[in-house]
Amino acid sequence: MTTEKGQNEPALVYAAQRGDKESLQLLLRRNWAWLKGLVYSIVRDADDIDDVLQDICVRVISNIDSLREPQRFRPWLAVLARRQALRYRQQKTQRPRPLNEKLPGLNCDEKSTRLLENIEQREQYKQVLDAIESLPDKYRQVFVLEHIDNLTYRQIAEILDIPVTTVQIRLVRARKILYNLVTAKNKNRILEK
Q1: Nearest CA to 160 among 85, 84, 79?
Q2: Strand, helix or coil at 7?
């Protein structure tokens, strides 16, 4: 079966359950961005995301037949992904490395003013990433999903299998926590100067 770009998810699931590899690949590609965001929100280590995603793909391939309601593919995939990411995080013994450690280092030969600007920007970036990482899981997941692939509240609710109002409440709380964390750190920095 040749898959069409406009084909709906339940039809792709049915085709994948019948052994159509192209449909399965298209299903995964369509959901890859939010899936990656969800995994990062749990694992919190950019170096481990690909390993976890690979494990998720293997599980999807081997368990796609167990999905009884093809229209619920996204929630099924989200549950599978959360379980795999949590399992991976529990098995990992070392402290997670945040995404901001992947930033390239600054060159020593840059002019001092440029260096100071870059350091300040990196510090602000690190503050925001640290604040996001410190969010409780339920708030971090909706926050990351909203900012990956610009998912709507309805899409996030479908993925996490929660009501849209719960998504809205969690996003408001996540933003408030982030705002408080970042502004408190900035106030402390100003007071230290």
Answers
A1: 79
A2: coil
Closest CA to 146 of 125, 127, 122, 174: 174
Q: Which residues contact 3 (CB under 8 A, 6 or more apart)?
A: 12, 15, 20, 22, 23, 26
Which residue is listed with tokens 């809205």? Answer: 168
- CATH number for the domain harbouring residue 70: 1.10.1740.10
- How many alpha carbons fall within 13 Å on the CB side of residue 73? 24
Range of the domain at 105: 100-192
pLDDT tens-place values along the chain, 193 residues long: 444 455 788 999 999 999 889 999 999 999 998 999 899 888 888 888 889 999 998 999 889 999 899 999 999 999 999 999 988 888 875 454 555 554 444 444 445 555 556 666 777 777 778 888 888 989 988 988 888 667 889 989 998 899 999 999 999 999 899 888 888 765 555 555 5
3-state secondary structure of 6: coil
146 in the same domain as 123? yes
Number of domains forming the structure of the chain: 2
Q: Are 102 and 62 in contact (CB under 8 A)?
A: no
